[in-house]
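User: Structure please.
Assistant: Input sequence and predicted structure:
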Amino acid sequence: MLRRLATSIIQTRGVKQLVNIKWVRPEYVPAYKQEKSGDLEGLPKIPTNSLPEEYALSEEIKDAPEPVKKIFSVEHLGKKEYNRLVKKELINRVRRHKYDENTAETRIARLTGHIRCLQDTMEQFPRNVKAKQTVQELIDKRKKLLKFLRQYDYKKFEWLLEKLNIEYKAHPETYHKLSRKESLRKLTEMHCDDIRRNKLADYRNLLESQQGPFLEQKLNALKFIRSEQIDLQLPITVSEQEIKKVEQQLEDWRKNDEIKQQAKKKKRNILLD
């Protein structure tokens, strides 16, 4: 009843101020962002003086002076060589042997390296439409490979996620468009639930505060009934166990009430400070 009333109040013109509900549209997050793609880390740290693979195997470069090595390093050769080293570093984390190039793990690692390089490019040039389309296609392709690996080898799937520091985010089964009307309806339901919860909590506190005096009256009444039955030599209907049980309940209530009062004092002192 309360939920229907609050919903009708929101939908009525001129009475929206009675319920303090404000709807804010969620911030748009592009699909290439790490929050959406599931990449929990950025590009691996590769030293700028690292040599590309084709130059690192050369015998002449080993004996060359430092200025020559610096010219052939990644710092001077450009972004393309740096991206190759990024992919190689990620593939080396998961490859089974040095000739492993086409297993599901190495393909996912290669895609991950490409995705993270393009994510770094998009951070620098957010209007690069071609890079945006490419990274979204690669993310979808990696999701399909991860889904395949998850279905056929779940232990390796978890190991791969840990090695590459990825969070698996599957494709949604159904597409649901966010609307203001539906969001307001959900916010209204949450608001009504909070009102109901607060009223129940207040009513519970009221009943607990009245429990002590009620137990005292009950205890006195039971003692009076028992003493009168003994004096008048009537059949005793109130046993000692019932009286002890009420005494125990009253003692427990007093302890709990003392703890609550101390908590209220601490809270009041914190607010005053």
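The CA atoms of residues 48 and 75 lie 5 Å apart.
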